[in-house]
C-alpha cells in the first residue's frame, strides 16, 4: 500500500568491515543474495565516491557466498566473521574492533546504528555461551568458502581430485558414496584437512554438503 515502508530485502546476523573486504552473514527475504550485495555495493560506492571525490569502481572482483544449512555452521561463520580482525592482526581481542557487529551483541549501548537481528540469535544461545565461542579461536583448518585458510591459496577441483586419487587411494571420487560410513567419514575428513571446501568436496564426490560438514 502507498505510504507503507518497504520490507527489508534481507536479515543481517553479523558483519565485519575490514580494510580491503567485508564479511556478511545474511538471510534472503524478498531478493536474492546477489541482488542484495549488488544494492549494498552500489549504495556504498556512491556514498564513498561522493564523500572522497573518487570516481570509477570501488570494489574489485565478484563476491563469494555459500549456503548455511544448519545451526552449527551458522555459529562457525559468526565466529569466523568476528574473529577476522584478530586473525588479521588489527586488534588483540574481538571486542576491541570498532567496525564489526560484535558490539551489537556484547555492548549494544555503544553501538550508534544497530543493524543485526541479535535477539533471534540470542534466543537460541545465551550471550555468555556465544561470547565464549566467539573468543575461542577457530582452528586454522576450518575452511570457509573455497579457500584453504592456512595457505590463503584456492585449491582447484583438479588438485582435490589428485589428492583423492594419490593420497586417499580412490580413483573415482564418486565411489566414496558407496563406502561404509566410517570409511567415508575418514576420507572426507582427510580431504577437508588438505584444504578442500565443503562445496568442492560435495561437488566432486556427489555427497551432500550436510554430510561432508558433519564428517
Question: Can you characterise this structure?
Answer:
- Helices cover 43% and strands 9% of the residues.
- The protein has helices spanning 33-52, 71-87, 102-106, 118-122, 127-134, 157-166, 181-194, 198-205, 209-214, and strands spanning 10-17, 22-28, 147-148, 153-154.
- Strands 1-2 form a two-stranded antiparallel sheet.
- The longest helix has 20 residues, at 33-52.
- It is globular, with a radius of gyration of 20 Å.
Quickly describe the structure:
The chain has helices at 33-52, 71-87, 102-106, 118-122, 127-134, 157-166, 181-194, 198-205, 209-214, and strands spanning 10-17, 22-28, 147-148, 153-154. With 215 residues, it is mostly helical.
Please give the oligomerization state of what you see: single chain
Main β-sheet, in a few words?
A: 2 strands, antiparallel
Q: How much helical structure, as a percent, in the residues?
A: 40-55%
Order of helices and strands: EEHHHHHEEHHHH
Taking the alpha carbons of the first and last residues, their distance comes to: 49 Å
The number of helical elements comes to 9
The percent range for strand residues is: 5-15%
Runs in which pLDDT lies below 50 for 5 or more consecutive residues are 1-7, 146-153
Number of strands: 4
What is the spatial order of strands in the main beta sheet?
Answer: 1-2
- Spatial shape: globular
Radius of gyration from the alpha-carbon trace, in angstroms = 20 Å
- The chain-level structural class is mainly alpha
